[in-house]
Structures are given as structure tokens and as C-alpha cells.
């Protein structure tokens, strides 16, 4: 992660892209912190600004009650929006103990083969506090509604598009076929935010 813009501009970028958003609840009534991985501008954010933003804008709003994280991995590319292993570890270590203890579950949407392999081999060692045991992999949006209240969560349109791709190209689930063309066709920061789908409430 590297910083090429001012701290204020970085904070404004996080707000504009809605990378982190607390809204909706899961089927157990827990608040959900939704994280859209594709929107994460890793090349423009410094680790310090990100940690400060979470400490000031996100963690206080979670309160002292159990909550869940919905991490949407759809369209994440290492060169574009992946912060790196050391940064992930630093962010996790910076989470206050009370917040970490209240994290009950992490719904991991569209994980992909590489993510599964990495977390299976390294997740237990990189993340303390039993985070690996809280992971629930979800391969399709339809399966997400078994865990999350459908009418309370908005999803970007590209998440549904990826689901459609998986129906016609199932080997993408196992890393045997790439969705590279689709991902980079809509990789511009501004265009990523523009199309949210309300199919989740239909």
C-alpha cells in the first residue's frame, strides 16, 4: 500500500467508494459490516489513514454487541485492490480487543480457489483470536440469503454479473478459468461505484 494523495483526500476516497458500510443484519439479528474488496484503492491508501478511518468512523458504530462481516471478494485483483498480507495483518492487529471479540462471523462471498488455499494454509497463523474459524465461504449470492436478511443488503451490479458468469463457466470456481476480461473492463474507480442493484429486495 502506498500513498500518492493527501490524507484528507484518502479519507474522502474511502467515504465516496463506500468500501466499508454498516447496514443490514444477518439471520441472527447481528449488525453487518459490509466490505467491498474491489472498491479498495490499495495503490492510493496509506495504512495509517486506513487504520485511523476504521478507528474513528467504523469501530465506534459497531457498539458493544456481536456483529458479522460480509466481505465481498468479487473482482479483487492483486495488482489493483489487494493491500498485501503484511497490511492485512497490521489492520487486524489494530482492531480493538473488544471489537475483535464481538466479531462472530465473516461471510466471505466469491472466495476463489487462491483465497481458499491461502487462508487454509496461512490463515490460522496470520490471524489470532480464532478468526479463521469464523469464516463462512459463500460461492453464490443466492446462498448468501440463507445467512443474511435479503431485503437489508445492497450489492453492486458486478456481483450479480459474476454470479451469472459462474453459472455458465463453473470452472471459474476452481481457478481453472479466468474472469480477467470482465474485471478489468470495469476497473476504473469512479465507474465501480455507479451501479448498485436492488435485486436483493425483489
Provide a quick synopsis of the model.
The chain has one domain: CRAL-TRIO lipid binding domain (Phosphatidylinositol Transfer Protein Sec14p). It is about 45% helix and about 15% strand. With about 200 residues, the chain is of the alpha/beta class.
Question: What can you see in these coordinates?
Answer:
The structure is a single chain. This protein is of the alpha/beta class and 202 residues long. It has one domain (7-174): CRAL-TRIO lipid binding domain (Phosphatidylinositol Transfer Protein Sec14p). It has ten helices and seven strands. The chain has helices at 7-17, 47-62, 78-81, 85-94, 97-102, 112-126, 141-144, 157-168, 180-185, 189-193; strands at 20-25, 31-36, 67-72, 103-109, 135-138, 155-156, 196-197. The chain is globular, with a radius of gyration of 16 Å. Mean pLDDT is 79; it is low at 174-202. It comes from Arabidopsis thaliana. Pfam families: CRAL_TRIO_2. This is CRAL-TRIO domain-containing protein.
